[in-house]
Write a structure and sequence with these properties.
The complex is a heterodimer of chains A (about 270) and B (about 400). Chain A has about 270 residues and is of the alpha+beta class. Chain A contains eight helices and eleven strands. Chain A has a domain of about 170 residues: Alpha-Beta Plaits. The relative contact order of chain A is 0.18. Chain B has a domain of about 250 residues. In chain B, about 70% of the residues lie in helices and about 0% in strands. Chain B has a two-stranded antiparallel sheet. The longest helix of chain B is centred in the middle third of the chain and has 34 residues. Chain B is globular and about 70 Å long. The relative contact order of chain B is 0.16. The chains are: A alpha+beta (about 270), B mainly alpha (about 400). At the A-B interface, helix 1, strand 3, helix 4, helix 5 and strand 7 of A face helix 1, helix 5 and helix 8 of B.
Chain lengths: ~270, ~400
């Protein structure tokens, strides 16, 4: 007659073996990494620890041509439908308050038809009712305290040492948690790869010394891109934060965005 | 991407109100993610009801004790399926268990689930049933079933007085551990939503607590409904003490749950943060039917009144009427809690994080996240429960 104790012994040994192998697994992975270092590190072509990429936006310079959003779609093969974007442009129209009210400004109307890719048709709001109007390019804010990397259940979303938040699409399980966690609506699940996707600052370009596609095509220089670790004396990003008063989007959420904006209005979220 | 999804999104684009971030058009979490908290809630609630018998010695509820545990098990076995099917890459799901990213609440799923299934439910059932397994392994007329029961003894065939006492004590201990575990299981599900600060409809510290109490409410209601239905099917007498005890438990759990949910709204309205305008528009507009009518009116206020009437006038109401009132209340509560899950999951994605506009959601019929799949996943636990009842005979051998 077997007792509970006999069964517990067998069960205990089995559980301990499983736990030990689970604990040792990361060590095995580390050992594998040492034995086979990543290609980029071994070839020396691009070392992420030697860079710190930043994009900053001068929204007063944006004319809403939408070339940035269009270039992004083409460069990154973003699905063409008007509800998948890595970057897009918003138009804000702040109306006059009208004589009857005590308000300084009237209603704010925002739109972004097809993400601004085709430019913006003239607003339907009569000119005399418009107090001011402006455009705001949107992209991943590359948060320093990013909720999207924090919540990824498998660690497929991560922050690269060069400051870019990336997604390993071959590791992502497509749960959508990161999409829900991004306060800026910058992520989506790609219907083809079924993995999460976002702006990578055109990582495949910047690691080759090129600019992100959106920066490349911006005709007014509203998008400014640079490497904080660059040794060139006139760093455009550093100059920007020296000359402009900057803000970030939704600062109260504590996400610490690394994309700084100049010329934002309080209505911009 | 399937054509239907693409078409429904193109259609949704025509019905956008205000300004939404372009990526917010699609609801990334659909009907299956509504089912997940609903099902885990039923698990936690059913277990809590069972623990009332085991730990708090509520004698009247004894007829539901084993049945509640089996119900919890049946639903727990199905709980991961909606999560699995909604993944973009279900074939990679094992990564959550093998390489969990521990700062993610979702990564804890494997641990919480395994703990609850293996360390709580299965162990408690085993300690409770071991004596029966040993008996049935000898006495069952069917040779296959005799073999099955023998396997389920796990080789522990000692049924001496002392051994059974130890079983009982260990079972008791596990139930005591099981109560916080049930809270953990469902509180954790609430935390997945509550921790999303990007979404003001979800990101509240009350979310896990509301989830826990609504889980208790839904689990008790499910057991009320099942107890009466199954007793009728078995042509067994319905214990009025048990029905009345379920009525009382449900009423008190509902008081707590509705008070917490009301507190959530009072707090939101009083603090009137940036998001309040869009949330009020959401509740009174897009969610008018599912929130105000179904969740609040039909799923909360109506059963509260019915349960209160049943309790206050229990001496004057006939047994039959009390049973009917209990049954109707349980049904309303189950619908109400489902509506609550719907309003949380779907409602939380109907407004854009721009807080300036709304998208729409249309539940498709077929596909991974369609109505048929959701229905199948909702029916499956009842089928499993049927099998479990057949094997485990919660009411003795004659069932």
């Amino acid at each position: 007659m077997k007792t509970r104790r006999d069964v517990l012994k067998i069960g205990g040994i089995a559980s301990v073996s499983v736990c030990v192998s689970w604990v040792l697994r990361p060590l095995a992975t580390e050992a594998e990494k040492v034995a086979n270092p990543p290609r980029s590190a071994s070839t020396g072509t691009y070392n992420p620890t030697e860079h710190q990429w930043r994009m900053v936006i001068d929204s007063e310079k944006c004319i809403g041509c939408g070339l940035c959003a269009k270039a992004c779609k083409q460069e990154n093969k973003v699905p063409p439908e008007p509800y998948y974007f890595r970057t897009w442009v918003e138009r804000y129209v702040i109306k006059t308050s009208g004589k009857a009210t005590q308000e300084l400004r009237g209603e704010t109307v925002v739109d972004s038809p097809n993400g601004g890719i085709d430019g913006f048709a003239p607003s339907s709001i009569p000119a005399e009712q418009v107090l001011r109007s402006f455009f705001v390019p949107k992209l991943c804010n590359e948060c320093d305290n990013s909720p999207c990397t924090k919540c990824c259940p498998v660690g497929a979303a991560f922050e690269s040492p060069d400051g870019v938040v990336l997604v390993d699409k071959n590791y992502c399980i497509g749960c959508g948690f990161c999409v829900q966690s991004c306060p800026y609506g910058c992520r989506f699940l790609n219907p083809i790869t079924r993995s999460a996707e976002k702006c990578t600052l055109c990582y495949h370009r910047i690691t080759k010394g090129l600019w992100p596609a959106c920066v490349e095509v911006c005709p007014t220089g509203a998008r400014i891109f640079g490497d904080l670790k660059s040794k060139t004396p006139d760093n455009p990003v550093r100059r920007f934060v020296k000359e402009k008063k900057v803000q970030v989007l939704k600062p109260y959420l504590g996400t610490n965005p690394k994309v700084f904006y100049a010329g934002l209005d309080k209505e911009v979220r | 991407m399937s054509l239907t999804v693409s078409e429904s999104l193109a259609e949704a684009l025509k019905h956008v109100q205000g300004y939404i971030y372009p990526n917010d058009l699609n609801l990334w979490w659909g009907a299956l993610v509504v089912l997940y908290p609903y099902i885990t809630g039923l698990v936690a609630g059913a277990f809590i009801l069972a623990s009332l018998v085991r730990v708090f010695h509520v004698k009247a509820l004894e007829p539901t004790y084993r049945f509640s545990l089996l119900t919890a098990l049946a639903f727990l076995l199905v709980a991961p399926l909606p999560l699995l099917f909604h993944l973009g890459h279900p074939e990679r799901c094992y990564e959550v268990l093998m390489t969990p990213h521990l700062s993610s609440p979702m990564a804890v799923f494997g641990f919480v689930y395994a703990w609850y299934l293996m360390a709580v439910l299965l162990l408690e059932l085993w300690f409770d049933y071991r004596k029966n397994f040993v008996e049935w392994a000898e006495s069952d007329p069917n040779i296959l079933r005799r073999f099955l029961y023998r396997v389920m003894t796990l080789g522990v065939t000692d049924v001496s007085e002392r051994s059974l006492q130890i079983d009982n004590r260990l079972g008791q201990t596990i139930t005591v551990v099981g109560i916080p575990s049930a809270f953990l299981l469902h509180g954790y599900v609430g935390f997945i939503f509550g921790s999303i600060k990007a979404n003001p409809w979800w990101g509240t510290v009350l979310m896990p607590i509301i989830f826990i109490f609504s889980a208790m409410v839904s689990g008790i209601a499910l057991m009320g409904l099942l107890y009466q239905t199954v007793s009728k099917l078995r042509k067994a007498p319905i214990s009025m003490d048990c029905v009345d005890a379920i009525t009382q438990c449900l009423f008190f759990a509902m008081i707590l749950d509705s008070a917490l949910e009301a507190l959530d709204w009072i707090h939101r309205l009083y603090e009137a943060e940036e998001s309040i305008d869009v949330l009020v528009l959401l509740a009174a507009g897009k969610l008018f039917y599912s929130f105000l009518l179904i969740q609040v009116l039909a799923g909360t206020l109506a059963p509260l009144v019915l349960l209160a009437v049943t309790i206050i006038f229990s001496n004057r109401l006939s047994n039959g009427l009390r049973r009917v009132l209990n049954l109707v209340s349980c049904l309303l509560v189950l619908v109400g809690v489902f509506a609550m899950r719907w309003n949380v999951v779907i409602g939380g994605q109907l407004f854009s994080k721009s807080l300036r506009g709304f998208t729409t959601y249309k539940l498709g019929l077929i596909g991974n996240e369609g109505l048929l799949m959701a229905l199948a996943l909702m029916i499956l636990p009842f089928i499993i429960l049927g099998v479990l009842v057949f094997i485990f005979r919660p009411w003795g051998r004659k069932t």
